[in-house]
Design a protein that fits this description.
homodimer; about 65% helix; globular
Chain lengths: ~500, ~500
């Protein structure tokens, strides 16, 4: 076996254990009874340490060096590059650190589920202090090993090649233009208020509707499933994608568009390059790219008038509403799914105000990492920014304030910005898809996503991690990523 | 750290990975879509090889030797003994063999689900040939390492200390006495035929009834859950026990008593010695002991007139039946759950004919292992024995014949006899519990299982693997295991 083949075999083994970890992680969120948590945390930590130890195996450096003298295909070369980055990223952490972090994060996530439900900041604060403390240590080690800034070193885990200074440049026009745009849209929408849809929607019917929309979008149920969890996510592995949602009996749109969102993620996973599934090069290019796929489905395609025309009759059928009920007309349902409001919860936010939720978190987590903000001061800092950006107080309202997201309790710092990168990418990609295939919206109106999906397969999914985000965007849309398509989309959808 | 502490730390790590494997295994049976099977098999094989490599780590021998000079507590001494046996059992297999076997077994199990549904022997035969071939290799290696006979070496995995010749001695009186006993009971029951219960029972109502009975028996839902699978089982880990059942819309008793059975297993797992959960000494003593706990709940307690008195009103409520409906009286329901018939399916068999199902499999698998029977000849051999022992032909009826059980496709050879050992133990243990706590049946009649459970906790569950089966039975019942209590129970329940 030559060095490249050795590397592939080694990463197949790593991929096997990541498979096991992904399924057990899904189980922890979607299936596990609370009493199983302590033993599970320990078990997951042991698995993570094993995976970590395999990723930092000193043989990898030797194989990587030997690969320089081999003639490799472009995909093999790209695979080596991803392995090189992953190896460098892992090698700066000790096994003991990985174990301590996994255990801290799992205990903290488990506590978060309880504390959030009880709006109890005091019980989550010590967990968060421990997790943020470990994240600071991690950032210092990563920054040192990668020659990066503290925050950049964390960001690189989710969005390789992007720095905080690039984010500042991209986010600045959003931070400036979105507040007045939000005002204008809210004033505009006040002219045609939504009719209410009712306040009780059977969970079983919601689930059936969600499953049928997943099928419409092209989800392959032979390689995945839908369940429920506290915090919706797309987990599992490419061969077995695990989506979750959560149901509110008073609002079916929340879960439905959540399912569409997660299905966008799932289509990316199910579309990864088939011959490379065990290798790092087949992985999603970045979390921003991943989010572009979920937001393209949820925001660009899913909330389009075309899709609402298709789905409205199915919504009426699911909940036994009459065809001539004005609240259940395409127009009113479209207004329902494009209503803009300043509100507390990021995951329920409309696409106009969403970036401000992200920028708020981005600013706070940068301060957490550089030490200028303590966890103890976090609720107050959150409340201040919510007041500044949204005019909303979260004083004492931890549940809908600083405790609403699982990310920080889960140790994910540097992740939030990828949501807005994804929104920008989604707008630019969807625009390019429609330009290249002008029949896209007519197809969506009939529930036919095959054209759109094959464009995404070709320009995004099948490329894996074999290109940079810049290259992917330029190949697919003719331009690197900017805020133009996104802002144009908002103006066109909400003010024209 | 002294050698004993090293050993404990090492086995804690092994236990962590077994935890991960147990949850992923449960997922494979209860949750995984079929398309995830190939990748899952590979992933599970990698995990199994890792666990195997840890179990055969050469340091273990050194630590075990060093332990001989340490002063250990009785539980520590017992823990060392179990580790010694496990290490010896694992050390005779290579990693390559473990990988090949795991992959073969998982492919075969996955094919079995399809083939059985289609009554298609041809598609499972090659898988079974591969799995049985590997089992023969395994038996040869184990026999060699343990100084045991081929079949005894496989049996030792599930029932340490028991040999085929001991089984022959225990099974002989059953093989002789059960056929005439069955005839007598069937004739006796013909005098009072059962009234039919109806032929449609909502799955949701069945599930609710099952959950409520689990609660009655003492199942801790903070440490476990109930789901569905093709073949019901009790999996997961002590801290998070995963029960499964399957529902038939035409027969709710099948699932209900299946749930009671699996809950018996679960109570054993949830009752393992708390301070020793990460160590082998806390494991179930043997599969026969495990089965004694499920059968004690299902057959001894569950099908008693006392429990039927308690559960009959709940059954009527679950399915909306009137209190004075004669089919739903305690007497008729009791007759329903104690009806004896010669039938095809082992898992649905009554307790009188069940041992003959086991003996049939025991005889066939011994012949498979010693090479006197080929997989190709298995359907015919099955048909012959079914004709001899039950007067039933399974010619062409693979689904309800040789393909009905997952055990052989799953590579489990030497497992079946433990079902009947369990039945014998259950009868003897229940008799002892009632003698020691004469109020047991009155308590069960009110749905109070706490007395029985605490007796089982003390005499079985909390002992873990710290004693031999003989010792456990003698301590709990005053006698080693015999067939007496079981045969007495059958005569008393079915002919008096």
């Amino acid at each position: 076996m030559n060095a490249y083949k050795e590397l592939e075999a080694h990463y197949q083994k790593i991929d096997d254990l990541r498979h096991i970890g992904a399924i057990t992680g899904w189980d922890e969120s979607a299936m596990m009874p609370a009493g199983g948590g302590a033993a599970r945390s320990r078990a997951m930590a042991t698995l993570n340490v094993l995976v970590h130890d395999l990723t930092v195996d000193p043989q990898i450096s030797d194989w990587l060096m030997a690969c320089e003298n081999l003639e490799l295909s472009p995909m093999q070369t790209a695979n080596v590059a991803v392995i090189q980055r992953e190896h460098r990223q892992a090698a700066c952490l000790t096994s003991d650190f990985v174990r301590a972090q996994t255990e801290a994060v799992m205990a903290s996530e488990q506590q978060w589920r309880i504390s959030r439900a009880e709006n109890d900041w005091a019980t989550i604060q010590p967990h968060l202090e421990r997790v943020v403390g470990l994240a600071r240590e991690e950032a210092a080690m990563r920054a040192d090993a990668g020659g990066l800034g503290l925050y950049d070193a964390m960001l690189e885990l989710y969005e390789p090649g992007v720095t905080a200074s690039q984010l500042d440049t991209l986010f600045e026009p959003l931070k400036t233009s979105l507040p007045p745009l939000t005002d204008a849209i809210i004033a505009h929408q006040a002219n045609t208020p939504c009719l209410p849809l009712g306040d009780h929607f059977e969970v079983a019917a919601q689930r059936e509707l969600g499953l049928s929309v997943m099928k419409t979008l092209g989800f392959d149920f032979n390689h995945g499933r839908l369940d429920t969890s506290h915090h919706p996510f797309c987990g599992g592995v490419a061969e077995d994608v695990r989506l979750t949602t959560r149901y509110s009996e008073t609002d079916f749109l929340q879960s439905l568009f959540g399912v569409i969102h997660e299905t966008g993620h799932a289509m990316y996973e199910q579309g990864r390059p088939k011959d490379w599934l065990t290798q790092p090069v087949s992985q999603a290019l970045s979390m921003g790219t991943h989010e572009s796929q979920s937001l393209l489905m949820e925001m660009q395609a899913g909330r389009s008038p075309a899709f609402m025309t298709f789905i409205a009759p199915k919504m009426r059928a699911a909940f036994g509403r009459a065809e001539d009920d004005p609240a259940w007309s395409v127009d009113n349902l479209y207004r329902q799914v494009t209503t803009v409001r300043r509100d507390f919860i990021r995951v329920d936010a409309d696409e106009v105000t969403y970036p401000l939720h992200v920028i708020l978190r981005y600013e706070l987590e940068k301060a957490l990492i550089d030490g200028s903000l303590t966890v103890a001061d976090l609720p107050e800092a959150w409340h201040q920014k919510m007041t500044d950006y949204f005019g909303l107080s979260t004083a004492g309202n931890y549940k809908n304030g600083v405790m609403q997201d699982v990310h920080w309790p889960a140790g994910l710092i540097g992740y939030f910005p990828t949501y807005t990168l994804g929104a920008l990418m989604a707008a630019q990609l969807f625009e390019a898809a429609k330009t290249s295939q002008p029949e896209t919206l007519q197809q969506i109106e009939t529930g036919d996503f095959t054209g759109l999906l094959s464009w995404l397969r070709q320009h995004v999914h099948n490329r894996g991690s074999a290109v940079s985000v810049d290259q992917l965007m330029t190949d697919a849309t003719g331009l690197p990523l900017t805020t133009d398509a996104f802002l144009t989309h908002l103006h066109r959808r909400y003010l024209d």
